[in-house]
């Protein structure tokens, strides 16, 4: 599930190389990556929220430099933010995007599952489940404005939304878990199956495929492409179309469609946690992660 | 579920405008729309049936001017007709089309759920369920010859068939229920998911999308396009191809595919009636319908 | 389920005509078709296996002249072969292809269900189930190198693999069971639905469609086309890409996806056998088979 690293400047510089960030990358502004220690703080600035009171459209900007890794703090902040907007009667829609252009979200923070106790890993996984339940089950129109790379957990966030607009160009999206010897959970697999169909999803998950935006559009993994600088604007225009539909009928229709999967995860939550915990803390997987980290450093 | 109006000349003329019918429209022949009062009459002329004895192909023409609104009488006639053909050993296939070019079927008659008692709405909904069960579960080759607009209930009828041929041009098809603050029932949603895939169906249902024939073909919502004057002929040719297959194996194969959904509706019939009745008779939905009717009149 | 015939030279020559084999066909080498009497023999030469020890890639060549009909012996050999490779720790992938170019596999041997006792048919069907369970549920990367026609059981074998490469040209693939008054079992239907989607699968199964390679590619029924002489090479290249992914994560991911259907067949095995036995031994189906055989002879 996790491919991003929030470890130190050196690892990060190598990571940038992997993603082919040029020297003029906006990400140069974040040369050093620091682990975010603000746990359970919903007022953390790792997620920035703004809301247009007139239209009821909120924009949620992930702001966890350098690559919006989903560590515990970030998962907690996202969930708090989604629930707050859910309970805000004046809010009708949510656009999820990145404050850091070129990376939408690089996925779970791999350090959260590297050489950690089974209990720590279990708690981390539950935070991911809870965040996902609040986004996937939202009554709001949810739109992913994918303004950069979106592997693993980034793709998970996108799949949980109602509509996906992605930046044109060399950016990639996909569920590449198997590349790191990890296995996507059933609920994530199901959203992939739902969005691109069983056959393409089965293959994508087996080979851990990362797709360019063009290919992602062709597969239906994203719904629309736009130049990176226009992704937010295009998302706002799209949301306005959706808001022409009465909220209640649209939300009931959405829930009718998503309730079975939401219920399934709620029912199998502990089983899903145990599966992830047991698989992830296996020595062979820990070795895979170690090798991955060493490979990044060696570059 | 309902978007059609069988109320009076003025409403109807405005409704035509909404659908962009030109002054030369064949529908000019039906300037006044009268509510069809023939309830439970299977010998009603709101459905015209002809059968070619040699080939065993029946053609069922919807004939409820001006726009083939599905009121109680129409639902009862359709069901009776489907069951009669089902039990006619010499019948092998059924082509469903409209006697009134430019509109295949405009959907449920909205007046059947406007300011009606809960019991009335419940009985109306059961008629729809029964009609759908007889068409979707038919042993016959069923082909929709969609010779005109096909919103809401028109799309429902099309989705229940085995194959869909639609008129080229500006005609539209889709499940636009949410536009009127209504929610498609689970069995209709499932046929949409089955035909165009989960992702496109979820989106189409949330935003109440109406698609042009070209877009519908691209999505797989219809299987073939033809000039409006050729839709019936093309349907007859297509049926002949299907009839080359032994009836029994084809019918068993079809049932194997459709039995789970048929059983699900049979099992949850009362629950589905209650859901529709409770949602539809809610004051906010009644207000939406009222506003919709007033908007039509105001045009 | 069965469309192939291993009966005698005359029937076979007519069968070739049906498939448009030219006078220069490699199949000329097998002018007479003999029923393979080697039952339960895993050392039979009807399946040829070679393995590259370095890469761990095994190639399984079906070698049951003239058209790789799936009779009992062939089903038993295939299953033994799949299970042997499954248990061979050094084996990582399996390429399934035909030793006889122009026909990948012509499907179940129709003579195995023609005028046979119910018990014989039941045992035959169980052999098919067991073979399918071992291929569909394999931990290996499984790749179909479809170097020729692939109707009915040939399509079944292809659908059970992870990836399908098919020869360009006039070769066809599909589940054409209904053409012979037969019905595909639920597990085969489900793999078809999974691979090409519900709607296309429902239609394909109802009309017993055989698709050209081009159409099969467009539908997603196969993943890639190659000139017939390159199918094996392209398959080997593709496998190498898949083997870059850690085996364990890939195999767990595959099982997570396929376990529900595997479990369903295991659970309903006897019911599925009875259904096939009862349907197939019905006089009307036996007459259909007889007419089919007579039609072949009469050509």
Features:
homotrimer, 299 residues, alpha/beta, six-stranded mixed beta sheet
Give structural notes:
3 copies of one chain form a homotrimer. Chain A is α/β, with parallel strands linked by helices and 299 residues long. In chain A, 47% of the residues lie in helices and 14% in strands. Chain A is built from 11 helices and 10 strands. Chain A has helices spanning 9-18, 72-87, 118-136, 153-159, 186-196, 198-207, 213-219, 231-242, 247-267, 269-280, 283-298; strands at 47-52, 57-62, 93-98, 102-103, 141-146, 148-151, 163-167, 172-174, 211-212, 224-226. The longest helix of chain A has 21 residues, at 247-267. The relative contact order of chain A is 0.14.
- Shape annotation of chain A: globular
As an assembly, this protein is homotrimer
Specify the biggest β-sheet of chain A. Answer: 6 strands, mixed
- Major sheet strand order of chain A: 1-2-3-5-7-10
| Total E-strand runs of chain A | 10
In a few lines, what is going on in this structure?
3 copies of one chain form a homotrimer. Chain A has 299 residues and is α/β, with parallel strands linked by helices.
Give the SSE layout:
Three copies of one chain form a homotrimer.
Chain A: H1 9-18, E1 47-52, E2 57-62, H2 72-87, E3 93-98, E4 102-103, H3 118-136, E5 141-146, E6 148-151, H4 153-159, E7 163-167, E8 172-174, H5 186-196, H6 198-207, E9 211-212, H7 213-219, E10 224-226, H8 231-242, H9 247-267, H10 269-280, H11 283-298
Parallel strand pairs in A: 2-3, 3-5, 4-6, 5-7, 6-8, 7-10
Antiparallel strand pairs in A: 1-2, 8-9
Helix pairs in contact in A: 1-11, 2-3, 3-10, 5-6
